Hints:
Structural class: mainly alpha
Order of helices and strands: HHHHHHHH
Number of helices: 8
Oligomer: single chain
Mean pLDDT: 76
Number of strands: 0
Distance between the termini: 5 Å
Amino acid sequence: MRLATEEELAGHHAATVRGAIEGILGGLAISLPASWYAQRNWAYYRRLPPHIKALGVILVVGPCYAIQAERRGVQFDKSTWTGVGKAELEREQRAEEENWERLDTKAKLKEWALRNQYKLILGSWAASLAIAGGIVMRDRYQTGPQKIVQARMWAQGLTIGVLIAAGVLTQASRRDAHDNRSVDHSWKNILAEQEKEEQENKLRALARGQSPAPATSS
């Protein structure tokens, strides 16, 4: 496997920055109109201090920024793979897709939850905070700060439940992986692809009446 060149490092950085900008703009496109709507239609939202409103915007923008930046970086990394490295990645991707198609609905939901557990935890916290806030804010006998504290406590309690469920799911997945663990033979596939590429280079060189060129790999 070759090391990344300066151009590739610069390209990866540019792709990550582009993804971060896209995530920030996307998060603002969601959070600012939502805040404006709440400010215009809900009196209890208008009574919230500005730093609480800003926190709500940050809670939307932050995950969008991190997720999109990572997605763009991974996409760029995949675009730079060539030769046997690319072939091995494509083989592993096809194997994952075939394995996914063999799963039933329950297993697919479990697998999806495992792959996106951090997004689910953060999303459940935000959703529970919004739902609890909507319920608590209807109480006419509590002050604004009291409502905020109570909504936060409800959200934290629900999030702890989600964290416990995620921990149980992760432990069960690790146990299944240990019971059904397999040896990684990807190096054999890479060697086979290298040998195949070398043979193809030799045949092309012989057809052209030239000496065979060594195979390159990533």
